[in-house]
Amino acid sequence: MRRKTSSPLLAAILVNSVYEMRNYPIVLINTVLSPLSFLLLITFVSRGTLIGVGVEGGLIMSMFSAGMSLQSDLSHLKNDFKLQDMVVSSPTPSIVYLLGMTASELVYSFPALLILVILAGVFIRPNAIEAGELLAVFLAMFATSVAIGFMLSTISKDIVQSFAFSRLLSTLFTTIPPVYYPITYIPLPFRYVAYLSPTTYAAEIAQNAAGYVQLPPLVLSADWAVLLVSTAMILLIASKKSRWRES
């Protein structure tokens, strides 16, 4: 049983990430450049004072973008190769296919994540508890984006539409909200708009864990509650609205 499960998982990782990384190295540059470009910009503008916050923002962006990439890849395989229909009709459980594709996105993003983790070790230096808190935040962001990406991939009709959704949502969740800098940098009348995005709460928790902001215990608890509830709600909506088969 383990062999039947591991084979599709390994196949998804090999086809969706290793193959592209090996045959088209240019994709690695794009994966690494996106979060690091914002990090460099924030570092230069702040003259180095926000480099630690920027590293955390890069990790949040990388994890969220990795999950959103699932949408384009699944949509491509579903619409262009009809792979999803074959998986649904095969003995392979649908969840195994989804887990394999999800793992492939992490492998695909590994170079960027590795660089950012090294930078975090240099500039943030979290202890074990802080590292665990940061990891929980990053995984919540990844789970949220995977749920959104999977749901949109099942209703998407064209790869061009998928790319548009992916870029739009990545911008709305990781570029406009205060992920690479503290929310206090946003003027107060506009600060409330930032709280419409779950990545704002994730960033606040991460910045508090690393000591860049000091949140009162009540505010920190509220941030965790909003982040976990929003993640759970998005996962629930995705499970209800996703369509494995064409109607």
Residues in helices, as a percent range: over 70%
Which spans have pLDDT < 50 for at least 5 consecutive residues?
1-5
Rg, Cα atoms, Å? 18 Å
Largest sheet: none
Give, in order, the helices and strands: HHHHHHHHHHH
Mean pLDDT level: 82
DSSP summary, beta strand count: 0
Structure annotation, total helices: 11
Name the quaternary structure. single chain
Which outline best applies? globular
- Strand portion: under 5%
Detailed description of the structure:
79% of the residues lie in helices and 0% in strands. The protein is mainly α and 247 residues long. The chain has one domain (2-241). The two termini are 31 Å apart.
List keywords for this structure.
79% helix; 247 residues; mainly alpha; globular
Give a nutshell description of this structure.
This protein is mainly alpha-helical.
